[in-house]
Amino acid sequence: MAAGFNWFFVLSSVFLVNLVKTLLPSISSFLSKIFQKDADQEMEMRTEIQNMKMELSTIGMMDEFARYARLERKINKMTDQLKTLVKSRTSQQAKMKWIVNIVFYILQAALMISLILKYYAVPVTVVPSKWIAPLEGLVAFPSGIAGGVGITCWLVVCNKVVAIILHAVS
Amino acid sequence: MEASEEAESAAQQQNNAAQRRAEIRRRKLLLNSEQRMKKIVGFSQSDADSARVLEPRLQLDLDGMEACSSKRLSPLLSESLGSVSDEAAADERSVSPRRGLQKYLSRFDDAMKLRGQLSAEKPAQDSGGEEELDSFCLFRLVCSVALAVFVRIFVCQYLSIFAPFLTLELGFMGLHKYFPKVEKKSQTTMLTAALLLSGIPAEVISRSMDTYRKMSDVFSDLCVYFFSFITCHELLLLFGCDAS
């Protein structure tokens, strides 16, 4: 009975991997939010710049030039600081995304290799060989059992079908 | 009186000197008119120098060849022919580097444009700009699943499962024209940009991409068909309904 569910086990693994792949952007943004330290500071700076701009609009440049210029310099300085902060946050997000992708692809490769090694000599399922003629050799690779469905063929088929299903659903 | 005469003679001398200088300048301008025309048109000094350098060598060669042969042509005619051919060769040499430079610059412009296109299309691709399943695509997938189930239940005992699949694909080729045609926007990818820059015409690339797309559609149909067949087979085995 357990041997009869090999095909389902491979299918579920492939489905899980592809599901995690579609969720990768959300995972990386979640992780970057957790590791981000300056989120509050950025918000405060934005609010402060907004307030200063409102104050600047009330000051007449001709009447109070010195105050106007001082405030404008403050705004410019804070804007530059905000830009630097945003730049560092963006680069951190990109780095996090890159790390998450790399880790995922390593795990995916490890899973695929382990499945192939596990089912190298054992077909995931067996059907009468005349059903899958004349491609029984290709379908059975690498198990070599007549009428068997090999792990590589089944992995390719499952990957394709799961990708189509997830694409249609999303 | 004498002073005025002296002043007059000095003025005359000055005029004469000025006229002489003007005459010298005029002659100088007339002498260099050819060079000036070449500069205006775009021939550089170096090209002119190289052309001048080549001329005597070629003339010598031609003269040498003439000496080896039976000296049929007169020296004057051979010289003029040599100079004309030298000028043409020099012209060609000067034009070909320019053409190569222009070609390089145009390729560089194409590369910059393609880079801009790639960067513009990357956000669209990142935000899930994949092609949606059009009606024909959906029809194909549904038919593949339905045929797989039908073949598993009724047909597989008699012949290979791939024969009905091939028949189905032939049917799709005929039915394709009855479905609304969806214009698929060709995206600029790194591969297409590299192929364009390597000189392959865009028409060839688009046709190859079309063929590749059709082959991938057939492969998708085959995967769905085979998957549906195996799943149906396993479910029938699970529920003990296998009549084969």
Automatic annotation (TrEMBL), chain A:
<dbReference type="GO" id="GO:0043495">
    <property type="term" value="F:protein-membrane adaptor activity"/>
</dbReference>
<dbReference type="InterPro" id="IPR029012">
    <property type="entry name" value="Helix_hairpin_bin_sf"/>
</dbReference>
<keyword id="KW-0256">Endoplasmic reticulum</keyword>
<dbReference type="GO" id="GO:0005789">
    <property type="term" value="C:endoplasmic reticulum membrane"/>
</dbReference>
<dbReference type="GO" id="GO:0071816">
    <property type="term" value="P:tail-anchored membrane protein insertion into ER membrane"/>
</dbReference>
<keyword id="KW-0812">Transmembrane</keyword>
<feature type="transmembrane region" description="Helical">
    <location>
        <begin position="6"/>
        <end position="24"/>
    </location>
</feature>
<protein>
    <recommendedName>
        <fullName>Guided entry of tail-anchored proteins factor 1</fullName>
    </recommendedName>
</protein>
<comment type="similarity">
    <text>Belongs to the WRB/GET1 family.</text>
</comment>
<feature type="transmembrane region" description="Helical">
    <location>
        <begin position="98"/>
        <end position="121"/>
    </location>
</feature>
<keyword id="KW-0472">Membrane</keyword>
<feature type="coiled-coil region">
    <location>
        <begin position="61"/>
        <end position="88"/>
    </location>
</feature>
<dbReference type="GO" id="GO:0043529">
    <property type="term" value="C:GET complex"/>
</dbReference>
<feature type="transmembrane region" description="Helical">
    <location>
        <begin position="141"/>
        <end position="169"/>
    </location>
</feature>
<keyword id="KW-0175">Coiled coil</keyword>
<dbReference type="InterPro" id="IPR028945">
    <property type="entry name" value="Get1"/>
</dbReference>
<dbReference type="Pfam" id="PF04420">
    <property type="entry name" value="CHD5"/>
</dbReference>
<keyword id="KW-1133">Transmembrane helix</keyword>
